[in-house]
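Lab notebook: predicted structure, single chain.

Context: the supervisor wants predicted structures on file for every construct in the current expression panel, including those that have not yet been purified. This is the next one on the list. No modifications to the sequence; it matches the entry in the shared construct table.
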Amino acid sequence: MKLQILQENFTKSLALATKFTSTKAQLPVLNNVLLNAQKNKLLISSTNLENSVSITNPAKVDEDGKITVPAKIISDIVANLPKGSLDLETEKEHLKITSGKFSSMVSGMNPSDFPEIKSVIDTKKAVTIPKEDLLDAVNKVGFSTSIDETRPVLTGILFIFSKGELTLVSTDGFRLSRKTISLKNVADGQKIILPKFVLSEITKLGEGDTVFFDFNKEDNQAYFSVDDTILSSRVIEGEFPDYEKIIPKSSSINVSVDKQELQRSIKLASVFARDSSNIVKIKVERDTLTVSAESQVYGNQSTQVDVRVETDEKLSEFVIAFNYHFLEEVLNLIDSEDLKLGFSTPNAPAIVADTKDENFLHLIMPLRIQS
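Prediction complete. Output recorded below exactly as produced.
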């Protein structure tokens, strides 16, 4: 193998590929990236057997060939070289990297030991998803996934393909997020759970405006392609909770509130909530919402916010409590200047809705407090 490639392109590709290697694997080759030079391009691949990435970079190839080298080593070397053209050349199972006065020789492994990775998908059969819409959806539901590996389905994001739309859902058992985006070429009925990690990496995929999605039932793999990069992910097996049963059909108390005012009141209350299990209380009255928290050691905080309340029952005073972290996280994702809160009872899930985005819905489970 002998070629020239731009340092800028190679660095970016290696940074992404390194994330898909496995440092704990019993197979040492999974610590590596596979470099495959052919027909004026360099294909860079890595995998941890669950997820993989394949990136095609333009290159001036003098001799075709393959080699697999430690991902972290080559990534660190290339990132610290000056911008411009790099020379890559294999000498038996070693890779020589040259840039001006800089020269490195990296020990590699036999490329035949590297797992086979899909590097092309049929875009004519794939579902096309606007990249900006998909990134926005992943961002708005990803924060509600669980970090508890004992319940794998909750660590991922549910994809529901139905006629004309794609719905993403996530929950950690304490909160739930749902975001729907419009699609053109999609059939009914497909549901799969995908790892949050892989979906978060879509932001690194090329400059294109379209994501091509394909799912292979035989190998239980989902594929995302943008420009010359393909991510693949093994689907998380298991039954996702019946989230539709959790979402309230309606709310008896609906509150319209200025987002910045609510954020400020929660931020102030959090100073004391940090010392009391992160609990903040929200009290709803006729045209006022009060956010409060108290600490046995440091004192208390209370802020009144003017709101518009709609209710189908006589309202004297309604009090509900939340983990302030959960409130802060969802408020940071609301695009509009105001939002709606929906309450039913102090122990029922509360709805947080964006007034400018009817396709986004968030639920938060309240905390039980003593009256």
